[in-house]
Amino acid sequence: MIVTPDQVCKKDILIIGDKIREVNDNILPREIFHGCKIIDASGKFVIPGIIDAHTHYFMKSSSNQITADDFYSGSISAAFGGVTTFIDYAEQQRGHTIKEAFANRQKEAKGKAVVDYSLHQSVCSLYPNLKKDLEELKTEGVNSLKLFTTYKEDGSMLDKESWLDLLRMSRDLKLLITVHAEDDEMIDQNKTKYKEKGELPPYFHTQLRPPEIEYEAIKKVGNMAKSLDMPIYIVHLSSEKGYKALKEIRKSRGKIFAETAPHYLLLTEDLLKGKDAQKYFMTPPLRKKEDNLALWRAIENNDIEVIASDHCSYTIEQKLSSSNCLNILSGIPGSETLLPLVYSYGVRRGYFDIKRMVNLLSTNPAKIFGLYPEKGSLKVGTDADLVIFDPEKEIIISDSMQHTAAGYTPFDGFKVKGYPIATILRGKVIVNENRFYGEQGGGKFLKGKESVLY
């Protein structure tokens, strides 16, 4: 059964080279091509390759630690989860241009990835030729920027006085602004409040960065974007209050869109009180069960467009190297578990159907980030990126079965029913029955076109 956002139906798919050449009933390739290989997907779903719109491979932390996964190991892990395209970040550094950041990131990725990839560009400081550089990067295939409203201490945050200028430039060039939405001033106030307590254990992450800071940041940037009549996209929406801000901006006719991640749907902040709490430490922090449920409702109500992993993996040793929440390395692995978790806990529990799942994990990110229809579809003439998905395969997710260099998953012990058994990238089977057949450097950089949100 092939699955698209529009239909679930029994069809054959003919692939020639790296493209889908026909989608029809009862294609008989042996009568057309001598030696044509047939893959029997009876009883399975065939869906477009997953697009993980939010990853951080080979990323340097503020303490100069490098993530466990580089573009090679991270993309292998992703491929085992049915991901055929990921979108990572080129991060501007203070005193450097975005063109330098983009060129450096391309060098780091070149010849490494086993699946296709694209890049968002973060902006942490404005400079005289920025608009010209943005225009040039757009011709290079960058169609989305990232604005941090926090992380002032490590230089990632763009000064609040510059937000409006960046938004204006982005609107003029039709570049999509994506936002890490946490109010830095409120975080600083909370740090001052708890300073006298000395070393803060992991759970205090939730006290320093409560849902209110997400609400405030979304409202501030959302209202700025509304004043300019331009779209913005909120990354890793984590809370009911954040969702409330989203709805308020939309109610006042703001063009605001959002993604969330499986950990904000399935894990709770209680994990930050337990053993090895650092393994569950990311930013924004985990929230309460009520927040999980609110985000499921948001997806159910079509108020969230994308589910992505925010894969940012460190080894257990790296994670446990500090117990002070101000110094714990932030981030978890997630690309490999994205699809099975969303299917098992979203589709099987009735929050949405499998067609909507394809939208959330593939078609919507492809359209939003300018990769459609080559990616995110099963249209004739497009890249043959497919996942063969067994809806009856039952697995207990474990650390040992993961392919990430982190060596663990925060979803260890989760039961799933429904699992990818084969991943096809541009007509080539790169994963089949838990064996890898791809090659280092087999993925290519994708130039994004203009976002459909403009």
TrEMBL record:
<keyword id="KW-0378">Hydrolase</keyword>
<dbReference type="InterPro" id="IPR050378">
    <property type="entry name" value="Metallo-dep_Hydrolases_sf"/>
</dbReference>
<dbReference type="InterPro" id="IPR006680">
    <property type="entry name" value="Amidohydro-rel"/>
</dbReference>
<keyword id="KW-0479">Metal-binding</keyword>
<dbReference type="InterPro" id="IPR011059">
    <property type="entry name" value="Metal-dep_hydrolase_composite"/>
</dbReference>
<feature type="modified residue" description="N6-carboxylysine">
    <location>
        <position position="146"/>
    </location>
</feature>
<keyword id="KW-0597">Phosphoprotein</keyword>
<comment type="function">
    <text>Catalyzes the stereospecific hydrolysis of the cyclic amide bond of D-hydantoin derivatives.</text>
</comment>
<comment type="similarity">
    <text>Belongs to the metallo-dependent hydrolases superfamily. Hydantoinase/dihydropyrimidinase family.</text>
</comment>
<dbReference type="Pfam" id="PF01979">
    <property type="entry name" value="Amidohydro_1"/>
</dbReference>
<dbReference type="InterPro" id="IPR032466">
    <property type="entry name" value="Metal_Hydrolase"/>
</dbReference>
<protein>
    <recommendedName>
        <fullName>D-hydantoinase</fullName>
    </recommendedName>
</protein>
<feature type="domain" description="Amidohydrolase-related">
    <location>
        <begin position="45"/>
        <end position="429"/>
    </location>
</feature>
<dbReference type="GO" id="GO:0016812">
    <property type="term" value="F:hydrolase activity, acting on carbon-nitrogen (but not peptide) bonds, in cyclic amides"/>
</dbReference>
<dbReference type="GO" id="GO:0005829">
    <property type="term" value="C:cytosol"/>
</dbReference>
<dbReference type="GO" id="GO:0046872">
    <property type="term" value="F:metal ion binding"/>
</dbReference>
<dbReference type="InterPro" id="IPR011778">
    <property type="entry name" value="Hydantoinase/dihydroPyrase"/>
</dbReference>
